[in-house]
Design brief:
The complex is a heterodimer of chains A (110) and B (122). By secondary structure, chain A is mainly beta. Chain A has no helices and eleven strands. Chain A is globular, with a radius of gyration of 13 Å. Chain B is mainly β and 122 residues long. In chain B, strand 5 and strand 6 form a beta hairpin. The chains are: A mainly beta (110), B mainly beta (122). At the A-B interface, strand 4, strand 5 and strand 9 of A face strand 5, strand 9 and strand 10 of B.
Chain lengths: 110, 122
């Protein structure tokens, strides 16, 4: 099925560094969502974006909904060990179903 | 954020038995819930869309007679894996759609996920 192109697939960084990941699509989405998933757990919603161009922050996390509605990025500033996990972007079109990116696995070296 | 619970969190069963997994939205009403399956190190794969009071909509390749879905109330959907076999072993996750209350508060349309159920079929 349709899937968003999420990159990078994995990141290995030092604690304190900033992180940036993005998702792109050939289709337009009405809503972009960013989730974080820890091993053995369900995804947890981080940020929801509803308007093209919208820039939203949640603590050290910042995400933007691309102006063309075909892309979004997520930034994490000053990473800490608990940021480790897999981050998924997800897009929602007119229908109810979410389309997911492949995920970005974040590993932090202390 | 909104809370979605799943029960049980993990289950081990014998081949040929049926297993029921519950998904509940605890602090909001969800007319629509979704059931996903996730393989190790992979993204979530949508199995079916569960609509309160009507039949579920299954994704292509998902057997509706094997994965029975019931959405009898605005806060509860169940997935029953019938005649389970080892290849059904997986991590099953539900989500519930939160559209807020019409005319109340800012616009919202998102999905909150449950913590998942690890199914192992021996």
């Amino acid at each position: 099925g349709q899937q968003l192109n999420q990159s990078p697939q994995s990141m290995f960084i030092q604690e304190g560094e900033d992180v940036s990941m993005n998702c792109t699509s050939s289709s337009i989405f009405n809503t972009w969502l960013w989730y974080k998933q820890d091993p053995g757990e369900g995804p947890v919603l981080l940020i929801a974006l509803y308007k093209a161009g919208e820039l939203t922050s949640n603590g050290r996390l910042t995400a933007q909904f691309g102006i063309t509605r075909k892309d979004s990025f997520l930034n994490i500033s000053a990473s800490i060990p608990s940021d480790v996990g897999i981050y998924f972007c997800a897009g929602l079109q007119g229908a109810q179903k979410l389309v997911f990116g492949q995920g970005t696995r974040l590993t932090i070296n202390p | 954020g909104a809370v979605v619970s799943q029960h049980p969190s993990r289950v081990i069963c014998k081949s040929g038995t049926s297993v029921k997994i519950e998904c509940r939205s605890l602090d909001f009403q969800a007319t629509t819930m979704f059931w996903y399956r996730q393989f190790p190190k992979k993204s979530l794969m949508l199995m079916a869309t569960s609509n309160e009071g009507s039949k579920a909509t299954y994704e292509q390749g998902v057997e509706k007679d094997k994965f029975l879905i019931n959405h009898a109330s605005l806060t509860l959907s169940t997935l029953t894996v019938t005649s389970a076999h080892p290849e059904d072993s997986s991590f099953y996750i539900c989500s519930a759609r939160d559209q807020g209350l019409a005319g109340v508060g800012p616009f919202t349309d998102t999905q909150y996920f449950g913590p998942g159920t690890r199914l192992t079929v021996l």
